[in-house]
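[job 4417] fold queue: 2 targets
>>> target A
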Amino acid sequence: MTLLTADQQAIRDLAREFADGEIAPRASDWDRNGAFDRDVLDKLAELGFLGMLVPERYGGLELDLPTYLVAFEELARGDAALALTLHIQNGPVPYVLMTHGTDEQKSRWLPELASGATIAGFALSEAGAGSDPASMTTTARRTDGGWTIAGAKKWVTNGGRADVMLVFARTGGVDSGRHSIGAFLVDTSAPGYRVGKRERTMGLRASETVEVELDDVQVAADRLVGDPARGLGYALEALDLGRLGIGAQAVGIASAALEHAIGYARERRQFGRPIAAFGAIRSKLAVMATRIAAARALVMDGARAWETREALDADAVPVTARSAMAKLMASETAGLVTEEAVRIFGGYGFMREYPVEKLMRDAKATEIYEGTSEILRLVIGRSLTA
């Protein structure tokens, strides 16, 4: 763990205690049943964990980003699927509101997000526009009272559970080289908003990942966030923040796998002694711990860069690239560490009764959403050669 301030230590301890007492013991059942219990969100809201970045005047904790990520890592260590819902609730949606919303929108929505009275979703990707969101085909047409949105979104987290969805839709063609895309707060109870099929995923099974159809959904003018032509830029900013969150989530998954692997290696005996006494197992654990420490350091480096919006050293790597580096390193670390944990468990690692196979399935998703590893390498490479 990186060196923490007293406040960061306190928030980490609170998150760890909650994860160990309220999340981890139920994670296996949630994975099996394909849903987590609503009561856990209510308990998280009571602790302020649904509005960690929201300003205090709107009912949030107003944490800085590094402190938020310290807490989020611990919650993800308890269950990555639940953490994905927390990520949307704490990160991209309130960020867009806080940065580009009107005072009225902030006063209306931020307290409800922070209290858990309103659960949010983020609808950007489409079947033909995943890594290339500028190619989206969902449209928003101006009407007398606001906008009419038509189209379909894919891989939407919280799509069935959310009360409000931040939907990105094309408001025009290409204007002076810029894609005209707007960001809209859409009530999920609005006529024409339909939740399509739920995806059957390899990991994160307790997270709702669905298709969303928007059949001429009417949206009032005050539900447009910011400039109707600059929504894509807002989404990409939110992804920079989101990638740091996914990096912390991946570190949490990896940390859980390492803890289980160490515990099992101490208990499992072969040839008359614990397998932790064998050099091969110690070597695996050493690599796992080192990779986790490096990934966590990159996530925190990206968080500090985000806070200052400045590069932290002479090479002037931009914030977008730092976020990409953090997510790339952390997600691939989660993949490596969970695979090694399965190997340390041996045959038991392949069994559903043991925790590491779930962690391995969950880890794979972190290499895909909010920027695949391939896309992240392109982002980093472009920053080095532009």
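>>> target B
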Amino acid sequence: MILIAPSLLSADFTRIADAVRTVEKAGADLIHVDVMDGHFVPALTFGPGLVAALKKITSLPLDVHLMVDNPADMIPPFVESGADWVSIHVEATPHLHRDLASIRAASRKAGVVLNPATPLSALEAILPEADFILLMTVNPGKGSQPFIEASHERIRRLQGMIRDRGLSTLIEIDGGINLKNFERLCRDGAQVFVAGNAVFGAPDPAEAVRTMREIAARKDGR
């Protein structure tokens, strides 16, 4: 199962509704919303109001990535606004079990995010509690960064950890994904692809999504 999640961070902010409708029609599976607080990462981006507005124009699940300090304070407003998937950084909270439990108590998918330099061992105690793991394949906080090549091995190792435990946890990746590395990343074991510049920086965002869909279909044997 391969899911494509175009990231609004790379969309034209003056035409976000059009961008969402374009990728939804082209076959995207989720809409990725990067929330940055200006503290955990330098940039400052979207709030719950955008999530609430998006719920009115799309039926796709909203994948909200909280790049924030004190995520426990941010989970309730985003859940109430309509976030369907919510992911928080292991580096940002001392109470990861409790924070994931609060997401799942709201019947949302709960995810754990790891920065590129954070070892996979940080997941040892929490892996069974997460619906998905988001591996950052660039350093968070800025779009259009080059893919960190060591991420290929991290994805494969994480897939092994999940398989060895008999879990169904999804592997999501974010950063530097493009049409050149997409197929290899599928083979590595990534299942959910956050694609920003590869989609919204393309001359035809819809065609970029369709091409990813075709590559994913070949990987899945369809």
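[job 4417] complete. Note on B: The domain at 3-220 is CATH 3.20.20.70 (TIM Barrel).
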